[in-house]
Amino acid sequence: MDATPSPSSSSPFDMVSSALGKYIPRGGAAAAGGADSQGDRTVRPYVPANPASGRQEQILGAVNLDWDLRITRCNLDAPVFAGLDAVTGSSFVDLLPPGDVPTVTRRLRQVLETGEPHVARVQRLRRSDGSELVVSMSILAAAAPQEGLTVSLIAMARRLHLYAAETAIGTSLDIGETAQSLAESLLAWGDVAAIDLDFAVWTGEGVTGQPRGRIRLRRAALVPDRAWPDGYVTPGDDLPSEASRLLSQAIRRDDAAQAIVIPDRKTIERVLGSPRLVRALVPGDRAAGVACIPLVLDGAPPVVLGVAEVWRRADRPFDDGELLDLQELVARTSHHVDLARQHQREHTQVLALQRRLLPRTGGDTIETASVYQPANPDSAGVGGDWVNSFPLPDGRTALVVGDVVGHGLGAAATMGQLSMEARALLSAGLAPDEVLEHLDATVALLDDADSGLAAGYSALGSTCCIAVYDPVSHHVALSSAGHLPPVLVPPDGPAGPLAVRPHPGLGAEFALREPFGVHAFAAPPGSLLALYTDGLVEDPAVSIDEGIGRLADTVSTVHPWDALGEAARRVVSTLAPERRRDDVTLLLARMIGYRKGDTATWRLPARYDAAARARTLVSALLVQWRTRDDTRDNVLLVVSELVANAVRFAGGPITVRLIRAGHGLLCEVGDTGNGRPRLGRNGLLDDRGRGLHVVHSLTTRWGVRWTDTGKVVWAAVAK
Q1: DSSP letters along 262-331, please?
Q2: Contact (CB, 8 A) for 418 and 440
Q3: Which end of the chain is less enclosed by CB atoms within 10 A, N or C?
Q4: Rounded-to-integer distance, Cα 176 and Cα 168, Å
Q5: 389: number of CA atoms within 13 Å, CB side?
Q6: Average pLDDT per consecutive 10 residues, the chain (719 residues; last block may be shorter)
């Protein structure tokens, strides 16, 4: 045993060892026994300390473990640790009660693998005489050049035990982990501990202080981790309705939540009244007594969140002091359970909103698939990633991906607002750069002093990328606001990120604002476009460029015949970090486009005979396409009216385009004018704008799309 560390040492073991002198009573080490020349601890019988002396309030010890969880060094000289067989070369888990071995081993392995410490775990250790010592155990990765773990132990008196237990319970916002931590802390008072929560608490729903006619409890945690008898309720199971009612009635006596104790097996069986309920609630034949402590949230009236149950053998009845300790611990930690419930509720709401924003299907001209994976439950909450793809009314398809700053409901509200605004503006015919200008103004407006900042949330710096695919020209127009560049995999070329001009993001200060550019590129049929958020490619071990390069390499392995949904999941599983701190979002789009024979385009001069010329050209094509007579008549009339309006109000060359789609025919007439056609309320003798009324009556929908040189008026006619 090394009890004299070097002053220059900075390992966790040596730092804990150097602190022992502050707490070990004079002569304590000698009284506890010596050590052999090899550093092995001598096995000594346990000598109980005098609880009145107060010398156990804070007694520190340290144990070093190797990768096989065997003891390499230990410093447990304080009298309170006497009787622990901490022998060099022995397995540390031999000091644990058998039921605790799986859980503690999992925690030790987790710290070995991740390096993240596990602190203030309330744990029992076995002495050689069969008695147990309650300690606060912290697990730390050993400092270099040492390897393995350093386990620090604090022998705990009553007050310190309660403090350490409360500290351990309040470290997570996950409802399951919070309940599990509470159960592990309660195990210091018994042989089995269980936490049963109101179903509304478990699912994150609202709770009420008023008793309800139908009580439903679900088991949230159970310790120790071992094989349980058939029929016994384990975590995730609902308690039988009769058991839920009995427990609720017991702790709600006279509508006031109180702790109860059932002292022996005979009374337990009489109270439960059914062998089935005994099998469901009693953890084995040795369990003879149980203390049930309600988890109560203070309020007017108080709200019962659930019940904690601590089971003991017949030879260990509960005394009044222990019941007071149990009630104090549960009372101190009930608010942690409620915080976890609120977090679960917010997490569920945000996740539902994000999944609602995910694209459902592609279309005839494009195939899409998306994957969204939220961050780990121990992160700050669901993030603001969003992705969408939807067909525009004029036959094109919009692909949108964004990343709103922050987490939780504030980010979710902004995410939903930006997503819906982008869809509305794109459907109204605005170009991607114009849409980003509106989103930029929205973020700035949401973040002013009267709204966003006053609510404690800022969306400044959010990013967005919008791509619009034209299935006729097989081109994509793309604009980005601070977002990472999409990756394009052409059918006959190398994959790589697009050279998108960088931008500071949405809501930047006025001095930093730059115009949003439009990056246009060809996307022939078979091309694959990947839009994503930074959670997919960010890795602390590599640069962001290398992460994007890995994405390009992975996406390039997607075969043209692969199912796109399966391919998207494979890409995410290959690239996403195992322990995520940010959401991961990926949208894959496979370009299909229209076949050459399904489209036709003509350019006509803006003359008086343009409408007649357009009717002749379109009529010949419709005959070739074998269109029905009534559909052909409607299309000819629509094209004639749109061309006539373009000649009358716009000027310049006129472009006529006809597209044969699965749902019908799409007619487009482009001109150089910038006036917006509007459908007004004309009088009986008012001829102005009557052409639009004709178009409106013959089509399923129509609208305007703006271009760099003017506008395009489109109209869809059903087959």
Answers
A1: E-SHHHHHHHH-SHHHHHHHS-STT--EEEEEEEEE-SSS-EEEEEEEEEE-TTSPPPHHHHHHHHHHHH
A2: no
A3: C
A4: 14
A5: 28
A6: 42 53 37 35 33 47 90 84 87 87 89 85 81 82 80 71 60 73 82 85 59 69 83 86 76 68 83 84 78 77 80 79 79 73 67 62 80 63 74 89 77 80 90 92 73 57 92 92 93 88 79 79 93 87 88 91 90 79 86 88 89 92 90 90 85 87 86 76 49 84 84 87
